[in-house]
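Hey, can you fold this?
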Amino acid sequence: MNSDLSSERLHSAAGYAEAAEALVEQYESVAFAEVHREALHLFPTRQSWVLDIGAGSGRDAAALASRGHRVVAAEPTAELRTLGERIHADQDIEWVDDALPELAGLRERGRRFDLILLTAVWMHLDEQQRSSAMAGLVSLLNDGGRVILSLRHGPVPIGRRMFPVSAEETIDLARGCGLEVILLSERDDPHGRQGVTWTSLGLQAGTIRDR
């Protein structure tokens, strides 16, 4: 990994390594079904290849693996990967060190997925990175594949790198890359944090298939 890319990845994940144990406890305190309640009907029911980007503690990856999916969990913060692998050792999850906007490792290996999940990830990318990242996501999708992502709105925690993101910008990027919007919903923060809200987006590539 070149030094510029390494620096960018560390900057994007600023504050996560130091707070890994507390963050894992926070992530695991809310169930997968509650976090994704607006999008649950979009998750595949048959066995599928799933990529969880910014997998954190592995909560979502483990839930999907337990449903019979073949799950790759991409997490650039080593401390979170280590804790996630230990907590969810009973689930068949492939953990990888990879991150947006490049996802270089997965793209170099030609991996393709039926579902890509990004939970509380998109706001870590600046405007230029978001543009290139959307095209990168599309390159990893199988025909008819879906992207489910959440957009965080609200105050930025001290020591974190986050940028304002809007549903409108994200939808424009998605449509520009050939994705169809199949879900747009808003909700309060499942952790009850003051001033924090979320937008859930479901995006579809190509022709909608029977899932």
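Oh, and this one too while you're at it.
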Amino acid sequence: MSSCTESERFAACLRSLKERSGLSYAALAAKAGASGSSVHRYCSGTSVPHDYGTVHRLAVACGAAPEELRTLHKLWALADAAREPEAEPPERVVVQPDPLAGPPEPVAGPPDPADLGDLGVGHGADGGAADMAAAPADVRREPADVRREPADVRREPADVRREPSDVRREPSDGSGAVGWRRRRIHVGVAVGLVLLLGGLALTLPSQGPDEDSDGGGGGAASAEVLQKTDHRLLFTPACREVVAMGQHDACVREIQELLKDKGTVIGVDSDFGPETLRRVTAFQVYAGIEPANGVVGDATKKALYESQVRLNAWSKDKVRRHIRAVFTEAPDRAIAIADCQSFLDPLHILPNTNGTRNWGLFQISDARLRELGGTPRKALDPEWNILAAKRLWSQDRDFSDWPHCDRAFSPTPSASP
């Protein structure tokens, strides 16, 4: 896997945490003690932090859960290990002398007059220059004779190797050492052929289902082979190990199609945006996958293909009727509050800047859930969510738990707590 792909996977996970937190690059950089431009490079995948401490501070500032921290650390380690290595100086190659090659060839140069005298080269005006020019050639030819000696030595083993062929050419009646070696070779060849044919016989039934149309042993073996190969798109090399917010590819489209098949309302556009993030998180809550963070890892991929969870939600008309039946004292105002909070979507999930989240129709916060003894799974149940909102309203008989929507949609806003 290329370093670019590893960097993109790390950046997608970090970008998902950043988008979920709602923090700007400048605000996140201030919390993590980094520069805004650096954080932007990390989230866009153009740069990978050299120190994991920076990654940890960014994730904590985004409110990452322990499991998310472990996943992010693994992705950072892969991206850091896949960095392009710095160019190294070329290694010096030391040529070891070959003992059979003889002494090294001397470098051509002007001959030493003293040496020429020993070789019998004339010093006269007539032939001195010619003799001096010819002398180095004689000197250079001398090592060639030395180098030719090892060739004779190397040819000796060839004669030795030819000896066994003479032995093999000897006629034999099957007795003695030569006959025993021949019988042993024949037995070995026969055993090898039996094993080879047996292996081919075992592999032939698994060639494909077409070879056995009646559903016999061949079809069963073929099905077993297919079970070992996972052809589901999210588990193929075409998809990243972690699919997260910010991606736009066929793998995101596969996730959206799987969620749509489970009954939820979602646009299939191959874009992992806020809507897909909310639907993935809701599915993780229903399937019991921890943490429910909107990041599609191995556990979520497997559940998308195998889980029988359904994400069917109430229609907006049914939501309005039920709110009106519960909030008998202020039905229209309660409907306006729910519409402002979640667009009357029972599976609406909104992340907060401090890492907490609001859940369901009336966007019950994590803190309120603990007070009411609820869970995210209960909060996504529209009936429970409406009754919980009525309990909060009954404390002071107003909508002060939703001050922004109360002021925007009510003619006489409730007093602030």
